[in-house]
Amino acid sequence: MREEEVSPYEEIVAHLEKIDAMNRNMVPHDIDAYGYLEGVLQKRWPYEPELARCARELLPYQRPKLSVQVQVGERFAERLEEVIQRRLARSQPPPKVIEGKLIEARPIEGSTFRRRI
Description:
By secondary structure, this protein is mainly alpha-helical. The protein is built from four helices and no strands.
C-alpha cells in the first residue's frame, strides 16, 4: 500500500490555514486600550495579564470620561459675584443651636476600676 502523495499546492493551502488560525488570535497593532479590553471580553484574542494591566492604566488617558474647557474673564467674575450675592440674600437663617452646660469631671473617691484578665 502506498501512502497518498500530497501535492505542493495542498501543502501550501494547509500551511496558510495554520497561519490564518494563528493570526486570528493576534492583537492588531492599530488598536487602543479600550479596543484591546473589549476584544478580550469578546474572546477575539487571548487574555494576557501584562497587556490587560497596561490597557487598564491607559484608559483614562486615551478615552477620558469628561473634558472641560473654561474661559475666565472679567464678565465671569462679575456674574459669579452676582450669583453669590443672590444666594446669600435668599439663604435661610442659621439653625438654632442648643446651649449646653459645662460639666466638670471629678474623680470618684475610693473607686478603683478593675480589669478582667
